[in-house]
Structure formats: C-alpha cells, structure tokens
Amino acid sequence: MKLYRGDSIPAGMISIAREDRGHTFANHFCGNGLMAKFADNGSSTLLRGKDLLDMVLSHVGYERGEPEQGFSYRSPFLSFSQYEAAAFSFAERTGRKALEPCPLEDASYFVWELDADLPSEAEVGRYELVYRASSINCRQLVADQIRRGLEREAATRDGHDLMMGLMNLAALSHADADPRDHRAELIDVVKYIQKYGATGHDQRLFRNSLERAGRSHEWLLYPTDPMEDGPGVSSRFAMNQHLRVHRCYRVR
User: Fold this and answer.
1) Rounded CA separation 10/30 (Å)
2) What are the beta bridge partners of residue 3?
3) Average pLDDT by stretches of 10, the chain with 252 residues
C-alpha cells in the first residue's frame, strides 16, 4: 500500500540560501528520518491521561483555541493520506501558490511516499509495521553532496560541504549497520475510530475527526521505538526502504 505525506521547509530554514534548502532538508532526513512534532519541544504532560483513541481524536479533530490544540501542534503522529493530492494540500494549505516541479536542491515543498505491505491488523484499523533502517533512498543524495563538496573545495578551498557530506555518509553507514527491528504503528483513522465510536470520548472531536479523515483518507504513522535514554517512545521514523522523496516543488 502507498501512502503520501506533504511537507514543506520549516520556517527556520527559509533563511538558508535557496540553492541549499532542498539538500538541507533531505540531509536532515538522511541523518534523522522523519521526526514527529513531539520531538520539537514536546512534553510527556501532553500524553498524560490519554489513551490511543484520545490521541488520534486530538490530532485529527482539534480546533484552534480548544484544549486539544497544544497536543495536535506537538503530536507524536505523522499524518499521511492514501491520495497524493490530499497529502500535498496539507503542505500548501492556501491552495493559491503557483508551484512547479523542480530538482531537489531548489525545492521548498515535498511529497513523501511510504510504500509498504500492510501486516495483519493488531486491532481494527491499527497495524504494527516492523522495519529495518536502510540508507537505500538516501545514497544518491549524499553522493551528490560529496561530489559538489569536492568541486567547491577544489575551487574555493571551502571544505564545509564536503565535511557535511562525509558526516552524512557516516550516518548512512550507521543505518545500514543497525541490526535492530524498528517499529511504528499505522492507523487508518476512519476505520479505527468507527470501531470505538465516541462513547466515553469527546463527541466534538469524534465528529471532526470522522469528517476530516474521511475527506482526506487520512492515516497516521506513530513511531513506537522505545527511547534509548528515558521512558516513552521515540518520535523518529528512521530512514528505510519504504520511505522516499516522491516529488519536489518550488514557487514559480
């Protein structure tokens, strides 16, 4: 099954020179995989007292100014869609920008593709994906970076790009040498919440989630590797054979 995720360059990277933005974004992926927002100033207090259904409802059905907004903005989930157009609408929400396909190094908008066979259901609408870390979808990105770094060093004696490329090469080697099974849950939002109904949960969030997830055919990816240095689960979906950059766009 193929799922798609729209993404864009974070605000903090807009100041980076245009020709470096796409590669900076891809290099981050090569070193870290996809990171849920929970990794960015998230707190365990956001999860306190919530079961999985509460978290799904808060992530999908939140409204601005309501208590669940804080959770949704720092959620441990990553949203995907069965449909590429629906996924991309989450990256460019205005629908007004004139975008055109472009090479990765010029891109400010991206579509990720997650292509994996679904395992048997752990419960209705919830699947546990077991995978291995792999550099296969990052090797060309890093090879291009090292080539450009060598050219720049030869021309200007500036070795920064080459150093970053070699650091990323080390990250790829580390991923390929990782013998562990990694885990993440895939949740078909509509199917999962329909099983439970809204009994004992917020009716408003249930209605919002059912409508929105049904419209966008939304799925949630929930990285569940245990934290190496503390309690809880990781927010990191490691780079692997199932995840790749599918399309790249820039503002025309």
Assistant:
1) 16
2) 114
3) 85 49 55 77 76 94 90 91 89 76 77 92 95 89 84 89 81 86 96 84 92 95 83 84 88 81
Q: What are phi and psi of 226, to 5 degrees?
A: -65, 145
Q: Which of 196, 216, 217, 52 is nearest to 124 (CA)?
A: 196
CA 197 to chain centre: 28
CB 239 within 8 A of CB 137: yes
Q: What's the CA gap between 121 and 125, in Å, rounded?
A: 7
Single-letter code of the amino acid located at 108: S
State how far the Cα of 209 lies from the Cα of 233, in Å rounded to an integer. Answer: 24
Contacts of 166 (CB under 8 A, 6+ apart): 146, 149
Which strand (E) or helix (H) includes residue 248? strand 243-251
**Burial annotation 185-217 (CB, 10 A radius, 16+ → b, else e):** bbbbbbebbeebebeebbeebbebbbeebeebb
Of 218, 198, 210, 188, nearest to 124 by C-alpha is 188
Structure tokens at 187: 């949740």
